[in-house]
Amino acid sequence: MEITPPVSMTEFFDAVQNIPLIRYALLAGIVSSLTFGVVGSFVVTRRIGYIAAAIAHSILGGIGAAIYFSRVYDIPWLTPMIGAVIAALLSALVIGWVSLRAGEREDTIIGAIWAFGMASGLLFIHYAPGKAVSLESFIFGNILLTSRSDVIATVTLGAIILVLVGLFYHKLVAVCFDEEFARLRGVSSDAYYLLLLAITAISMVLMVRVAGIILSLALLVLPAATASRFSRKLWVIILVSIGLTFVYNTGGLALSFELDVPTGPFIVLVASLVYGLSFALKRLVR
Amino acid sequence: MSSATCARSQQRSRGHAEFNLTLFSHPLNPVESADIAVADGLCFGYGRQLVLEDVSFSIPKGESLCMIGPNGGGKSTLLKLMLGLLEPTRGSLSLFGKPAEEARKQIGYVPQAVRFDPLFPITAIDIVLMGRLDRHRFGFYSRKCRETALQALAEVGLEEFANRPFSDLSGGQRQRVLIARALACEPELLLLDEPTANIDLSVEEQFIETLALLKEKMTILMVTHDLDLISEIGDSVLCVNHRVHRHSLPLSGETIREIYSGVRRVEHDRRARHVHGDHSACEHD
Q1: Which DSSP state fits B2?
Q2: Domain limits of chain A?
Q3: Peptide bond before B60: cis, by omega within 30 degrees of 0?
Q4: What distance in Å separates the CA atoms of residue B152 and residue B161, rounded to the nearest whole number?
Q5: Which residues fall within 8 angstroms of residue A174, CB to CB, at 6 or more apart?
Q6: Model confidence, pTM
Q7: For B104, which of A45, A169, A184 is closest by C-beta distance?
Q8: Nearest residue of chain A to residue B109 (CA atoms)
Q9: Tens-place pLDDT, residues B166-189
Q10: Which residues pair with B107 in a beta bridge?
């Protein structure tokens, strides 16, 4: 369904009230902010940003493969979203398995998955028959989710992640801080580490929709990185990350209409500036 | 008590917390003959190189001691074997009469504090609560778990620091938080891996006092490089240098040289212990 984007702030607020799609996008934005705030905090704390970036790039491989095979073999249910989720989970498991077995080598494996994912995705898209696929929404994101089912998928996946983190919060923190001790207390550290990577993978899929592949890591990590400069308590970092993510996503969305700039890059620019400011602010406070 | 120990207890630092060991329900019964750790022909190697060869010993319950030896001699490996984190290549090792992996619940492990990311956003109480992980299902820790954790922090004199972030603590305080975490496991055996390696002397003394009190209620096995501490913990030491030998204290200079077989002993900062200008009792370069 084609919609004409609103061109100013007032039109944006009108749109929210009158166009269900934008309301859904807002709802998805709220749930996403909760998810990204929580997951981003774990990614920053556990220092797996590099892994998250590799997963984001491998998502292109999944999207490309889904487009190619769904067209060549006429499989209507194989949407890019499903391809993305499969590719993300697969790369997370491979990276997780390698880093659990051979810690020092994980850098190269991560790089390999990153490159392989991007390259195979681009090739699949190039050779996919039928209508040409625009890469723009994958590279830059498409924050105006184009269908109701997308919003449902986002909210569902986001909610599942939040429930999982809620149930296993202390075990996840324990495994992040001291996986050896957690193991001594009967916690399967390996399983929880893989769970964390899987959660990160799904979050990257959701994030790629918002900010595109290139900027997805930045938007996931910058709110938590900013929060970490001001607090050394994880629950505070999570709350601040959620707040910042919501402000960036929603505020950025509205503001980008006002200023007529691409949304994804604009949001990341704002997030980076705030992060940079946090350094200056800390110095002033001292 | 030797005169040295008396002198040290008279030097208690100010603001020293009162220790009340109410936490532990495993009083040492001298009539029980159960050994806490028994090794028989234990061998371990990574690949073909054997780190530990034909190790046999038995440590009775209540007999705390230190494990000493040169780097690379297998001390940490033996510790990991006792925790069930490694499996013997040959021979056997049992703790509390069971294979090491099954005895974990009864052991409190204290690793070195320097191993952890100092900036990790976690509070002291949350670290100590990890000792209760096996008793916790979904969601959040129960009130009883929190009370146990606070008590454990009190045992090491850090209850006011419960909500302080790990990054705000000094090296000695971090090490004590890790001890509290092990205490929160309500263990019968406390295993410490070089706890004094990175803390200064004044803190070290407070430390040793804590351990001396804990020694009354549980067995302590401490891996250490610090030969000054070995007499504080027990009457003998376990020397680990690919093989394991038991030596009663005090150790003669020859025994020490033999144990470390030519490897230079790790020297900690002993400046504060010297009587000014008098170095007759020292062995340093």
Answers
A1: -
A2: 6-281
A3: no
A4: 12
A5: A181, A182, A185, A187, B130, B133
A6: 0.84
A7: A184
A8: A181
A9: 999 998 899 999 999 999 999 999
A10: B189
Quick one: DSSP state of residue B197? T
Find the closest chain A residue to B138 by CA distance.
A167
User: What is the ipTM score, two decimals?
Assistant: 0.85
Of residues B141, B158, B140, B142, the one with CA closest to residue B150: B158
* Minimum distance, in Å, between the CA of residue B192 and any CA atom of chain A: 13
CATH architecture of A6-281: Orthogonal Bundle (1.10)
Residues from chain B that touch A184, judged by Cβ atoms under 8 A, are: 83-85, 104, 107, 109
Closest CA to B26 of B270, B189, B257: B189
Interface with B, mutate which of A47, A165, A181, A183 (most B CBs under 10 A)? A181
Dihedral sign of CA atoms B125, B130, B134, B136 in order: positive
Q: What is the pLDDT of residues A237-274, one digit of tens each?
A: 999 999 999 999 888 777 767 777 777 788 888 899 99
Letter for the amino acid at A195?
A: L
Residue B45 Rama label (left phi>0; alpha psi -120 to 50; beta) = beta
Q: What is the phi-psi region of residue A195: left when phi exceeds 0, alpha when psi lies from -120 to 50, beta otherwise?
A: alpha
Q: Does A185 touch chain B (CB under 8 A)?
A: yes
User: What phi-psi label fits residue A93: left (phi over 0), alpha (psi between -120 and 50 degrees) or beta?
Assistant: alpha
